[in-house]
Amino acid sequence: MMTRFINNVKTTILLAAIFVLFVGIGGYFGGRNGMILGFVFGGLSNLIAYFFSDKIALMSTGAQPASEAQAPQLYRIVRDLSEKAGLPMPRVYICPQAAPNAFATGRNPQHAVVAVTQGILQACNEQELTGVLAHEICHVKHRDMLISTIAATMAGAISSLAYMAQWAFMFGGMGGRNDNRRGNPLGLLLMIIVAPIAAMLIQLAISRSREYNADSAGAELCGNPLWLANALGKLESYNKRIPMDVNPAQSHLFIVQPLVPGGLSSLFSTHPPIQKRIALLQEQAESMGLTPRRIAY
Asked: Least buried of 40, 100, 140, 234, by fewest C-beta within 10 Å?
């Protein structure tokens, strides 16, 4: 309950921050016209992030809805875990990606989506798949999905502001003739340099702690932390070798960091170290009287 409350507070703060950011920067660089543009742009970003987060994430990965006839094992596991967690059954999607991975999206448990890649269905056994899906179901329960999508939207928005600053620099700003801040080279230069860094820091600050929380809660939900620990080791091994066709700004949604073509994955690294996650899960297993065993990946 406390986790959900904290996440709701974070969501509200992020939504408000989008407005403040766009209106403030718009006013600084464009005067009254810039404030109006920032207000409109910030409002649209909030609406898109809240109501269309799942569609954005699914389209970016090429995920398609899967029927129970197509994936009976997947449906059975998701249904069992959802019932155990006291949640409605989320929609189930499959991404046509060879790299094994999974993510959850949606603005609340009633509109949740759990998506897996085709690769994870082939790479993981039933126990490992159960551990992964338990992790994603806990993201749904903690309402992490909306925060992640808003973080991605905000990161993209800040990056967009950097591009706007570049154009303002070239064309002398958006304000009137009497605006002394018009075309301020130092302010514009700082915006161009700092904005992409700020965008990445937002993703880093939000994504890392949520993965640890979902690991621990998912291990409790499935009943065996070693199932998820073994899956994480296997997924990391595969994703280091198999590139995934996904926007780098969306990579934080996945349970493990995907390898993005072009060497951009390290710039958008939002996940805590896999070995630390595995070690914590093994400690959790030992506290439950289970003995970790080494798995060959």
From this structure: 40
